[in-house]
Amino acid sequence: MxxxxxxxxxxxxxxxxxxxxxxxxxxLVIANxxxxxxxxxxxxxxxxxxxxxxxxAISETPLDGRDVLDATGxxxxxxxxxxxxxxxxxxxxxxxxxxxxxxxxxxxxxxxDIEQWYEEHRSDAVINYGAAVGFWATRLDVLGDTTLxxxxxxxxxxxxxxxxxxxxxILQLIDDGLARGALGVGMGLxxxxxxxxxxxxxxxxxxxxxxxxxxxxxxxxGYDDKHIRSYGDLYEVFGGAIATDxxxxxxxxxxSYNDWTPIGLELIAKAQARGLPVTTEMYPYAFGGCAxxxxxxxDWETYPDEYFSxxxxxxxxxxxxxxxxxxxxxxxxxxxxxxxYDNTEEMVRLALKSPLTMIASDGGGTLHPRIAGTYSRxxxxxxxxxxxxxxxxALRKMTIMPALHMERRxxxxxxxxxxxxxxxxxxxxxxxxxxIDRSTVLEPMKPSAGMQYVLVNGAPVVRGxxxxxxxxxxxxxxxxxxx
Length: 483
Known about the structure:
Blueprint: H1 2-23, E1 26-37, E2 42-51, E3 54-59, E4 65-70, E5 75-78, E6 80-82, H2 90-98, E7 101-106, H3 114-120, E8 128-131, E9 133-134, H4 135-143, H5 150-158, H6 164-179, E10 185-188, H7 197-209, E11 214-217, H8 232-244, E12 248-250, H9 253-257, H10 261-273, E13 278-282, E14 288-291, H11 305-311, E15 312-314, H12 323-330, E16 337-340, H13 345-353, E17 357-359, H14 370-385, H15 391-398, H16 400-407, E18 427-430, E19 451-456, E20 459-463, E21 466-467
Parallel strand pairs: 1-4, 1-5, 6-7, 7-8, 9-10, 10-11, 11-12, 12-13, 13-17
Antiparallel strand pairs: 1-2, 2-3, 5-18, 14-16, 15-16, 18-19, 19-20, 20-21
Helix pairs in contact: 4-5, 4-6, 6-7, 7-8, 14-15
């Protein structure tokens, strides 16, 4: 009898304790929103309870919170994960947050010194941040001629063939970066024409040993008479994946392949069907950004006059170029960025509609509207106005697809890209009826409209559509360190 009484008292105590815990208000509640979780398929009116930066409850009934955000008539979705920004600064992260981005990674033009990079960005973390280790940057450290400056040193490195000893030194720097928690390896192969396939293959082998993805800006193997590149560059990527089992991520397939985008998507689909670890992404603009000193302009003197006046604009002013203006800029040895009209709307739509593609901005190096408007452009123009894809499909490309891609290397990503209990409270609340991009070539940093709230680790960095000054809840995201 005493044992029974003790058991009943204990059970009653646990019940009372549980009731008290349930009755305690959450730090923050998002109420009455249309919760959309692409992984589980949830699409319903729910109340989301958040405490200590983590989603604690998703309820059909109202929840008590110390801070309550009314999301009536709004979508509540995972924060967007941008797998490809070219640089990171506080101002850019403000407009990224207003575009719904809660996590951004430097995965192409990645740094060589991982520790230094993370330390530099620790104090201005509006959103979560992380970086790969860069093949381009480490190659410059090893091959760069210190007697040269600026663009001249980059061009010298890009056209220098590495010796076996230099390749070993490059590999050592990359190995060190991966051991220190770099998210992967960033490889802008188009900008390093002197890197041999053998050199690239050794980098692939190293990345594979660390279980790290290689994010590849493919190189061009030549152009036809319309200045459209061939598709041989994908063969190099596929060959490397077959030889090393490295996880390959092809950057901005529509920008890299232009009119060959259908072939590129077909090849990637067939590679995936055969078990090859190859993924890809795209951004929703028919024009890209490039530097006037880029190696793919080495043969610019062979281009027709109309190429400069119809394809190239100065990013800083919007000025259309001429052959002579291009020559002056090219010979200046300064870093000058251009807007390059090298794509078509047809290819953008094709890539966006494909189930293969994730969304990533490639924003930051060149002043380009994709920095501020990539995600809202997809949601406003292509989902709402054109009906090119469903809202859930678009959110999938922005959230769970990049999270799944990265979580094999980075366990922290298992808590991103989801509206689920125990997931990190990186959330966006937006009005699907008005969300739209407003950035243009002449106003590239103009914020998007329609994003009502943006939470990073449970803290609102956007409230009532306004960025919150002095709020820095972003956290560094790194892979586990190794010996």
